[in-house]
Amino acid sequence: MGYVASSLEGSDAEIVSIAVRPGHRRCGIGRALMMHTFVKLNAFGIRRVTLTVRPANRPAMQLYARLGFRSLRRIRQYYPDGSDAIEMQKELSGATRAAGASTSSGSAV
Ligand SMILES: CC(C)(COP(=O)(O)OP(=O)(O)OC[C@H]1O[C@@H](n2cnc3c(N)ncnc32)[C@H](O)[C@@H]1OP(=O)(O)O)[C@@H](O)C(=O)NCCC(=O)NCCS
Q1: Atom 20 in ligand 1: which residue has the minimum CA distance?
Q2: How far apart are the CA of 72 and the centre of ligand 1, in A?
């Protein structure tokens, strides 16, 4: 139904990709995948998560804002089609730290 993939470097991680099947969107899956990922990343010692998103992608922009990401900067002509990207960042809190550990850096449902 959906997946999220992240890459880790030091105490930072990047959300590389997230998608939910069209027929299952707006049911809380994207949010659940991201929350699960935060717990895993925190268990790996990750403290900061970044991602890039097209500003026209309203569902994704809204999802990230609801999850506490803040916009850092606009990156001109980031995508192959010449579109700009918004770089967003979130600091992970210690609250998710105790909730579980895993050796995986991806999640799927
Ligand atoms: C972005 C995406 C992963 C969201 O997944 P989802 O399972 O539909 O998201 P959720 O149901 O968990 O929604 C969580 C919140 O995100 C926001 N949101 C999600 N879809 C939205 C939409 N179509 N319009 C506005 N806000 C939306 C809402 O704030 C929502 O909370 P609410 O339902 O309480 O209002 C999904 O739309 C998707 O797969 N899009 C195509 C791939 C993509 O664009 N990936 C991101 C690339 S950066």
Answers
A1: 59
A2: 20
Q: Classify domain 2-97 by CATH number.
A: 3.40.630.30
62-107 pLDDT per residue, tens:
999 999 999 999 999 999 999 999 999 999 986 554 443 333 457 7
User: How many whole angstroms from 59 Cα to the centroid of ligand 1?
Assistant: 4
Pocket of ligand 1 (CB under 6 A): 18-20, 25-31, 53, 57-60, 62-63, 66
Q: Is 52 in contact with 61 (CB distance < 8 Å)? A: no
Q: For the chain, what are the domain ranges?
A: 2-97
Both tokens of 56, joined, read: 């026209």
Pairing of strands 48-53, 12-20: parallel
pTM of the model: 0.90
Q: Quick one: average pLDDT of 21-30? A: 98
Q: How far is 93 from 29, CA to CA, in rounded Å?
A: 21
Q: What is the pLDDT of residue 26?
A: 97
Mutate to test the pocket of ligand 1, among 1, 25, 38, 87 (most ligand atoms within 8 A of CB): 25
